[in-house]
Amino acid sequence: MRRLLRLLIVLALVGLAAFWYVTRPDPLPAGALAGIVGDTQRGELVFWAGGCASCHAAADAKGEDQLKLGGGQKITSPFGTFLTPNISPDPQHGIGRWSLADFGNAMLRGLRPDGAHLYPAFPYTSYNKMTLQDVADLKAYLDTLPAVATPSQPHQLRFPFTIRRLVGGWNFLFESRDWAVTGDLTPQESRGRYLAEAVAHCGQCHTPRNALGALESDRWFAGAPNPNGKGTIPNITPAHLKWSQADLVAYFTTGLTPEYDSAGGHMAYVVENLSKLPESDRGAIAAYLKKVPPQP
């Protein structure tokens, strides 16, 4: 009985050590962003491509109010409700005191400055494919925006999802830094893939998820239930979306479909963001969508 007890203790300690190792934070290498200088003009384009205002400004914000990133929007999920944080340059309630390395670790590794895991409701699992220069450009632009003195609100999650360390295990199982669409792509299609899969994180809404909230990459862009419980987010693979590239570019520019319908819901904000990009970028996303494998 004593031997069995000792064996169980050893197994428990080994299991605990394995759990602690697997769930550990994995920050960027020291100095990864050293010497990289952000450009605010390029950062503004990254800002709109990434849809930052759509989540971090007030839900009904228009015009200049879209640049006040005090957070507070609610994101419903099977695990509870996430509340978007303040990412304005406010030094107390926002990210005004964050270094570029802090920001890079949040965007590319899903980590807070204190090393704790961010929840993947923040789409670092898409942003992790962004270039270091784009991350620096975005930080430079965010630093120019108005400071908002609104405290970030805590998430409303059920136990055990309140334990952030578990996110490290989720990352171990599901986080990928690989592209969903592979193969030979033209420079235009590659640019579109970068924008759609990384910066604009389109797959976060248009791809189904498994029971633990991870994207089912083998069903990329096949459509998914709307997290708010109202309707579905459509399949945008060539099996369902028959629009031409010109139709797609027009939709990303004006929000009007070939059937003279208009974008609604959250997609209206996406179109508003994409319309601020160069037409070449909208064309690149359209070209990429034509290369996505068809999904029923």
Description of the structure:
- Helices cover 40% and strands 5% of the residues.
- By secondary structure, it is mainly alpha-helical.
- It has two domains: 40-174, no CATH class; 187-289, Cytochrome Bc1 Complex, Chain D, domain 2 (Orthogonal Bundle), CATH 1.10.760.
- The strands form two sheets. A three-stranded antiparallel sheet has the order 1-2-3, with no helix packed on it. A two-stranded antiparallel ribbon has the order 4-5.
- Helix 2 packs across helix 6 (132-142), helix 8 (187-199) crosses helix 12 and helix 10 (245-254) packs across helix 12.
- It is globular and about 75 Å long.
- This is C-type cytochrome.
- It comes from Acidimangrovimonas pyrenivorans.
- Pfam families: Cytochrom_C.
- InterPro entries: Cyt_c-like_dom (IPR009056), Cyt_c-like_dom_sf (IPR036909), Cytochrome_c-type_DH (IPR051459).
Tell me the Rg in angstroms: 20 Å
Q: Kindly report how far apart the N and C termini lie.
A: 57 Å
The number of helical segments is: 12
**Total number of strands:** 5
Uncertain spans: none
The largest sheet is: 3 strands, antiparallel
Overall spatial form: globular
Q: Please write the string of helix (H) and strand (E) elements.
A: HHHEEHHHEHHHEEHHH
Within the largest sheet, what's the order of strands?
1-2-3
Beta strand %: under 5%
The structural domain count equals 2
What is the average per-residue confidence, as pLDDT, rounded to a whole number? 91
Helix content: 40-55%
Give the oligomeric state of the chains in this entry, treating copies of one chain as homo and distinct chains as hetero.
single chain
* Category by helix and strand content: mainly alpha
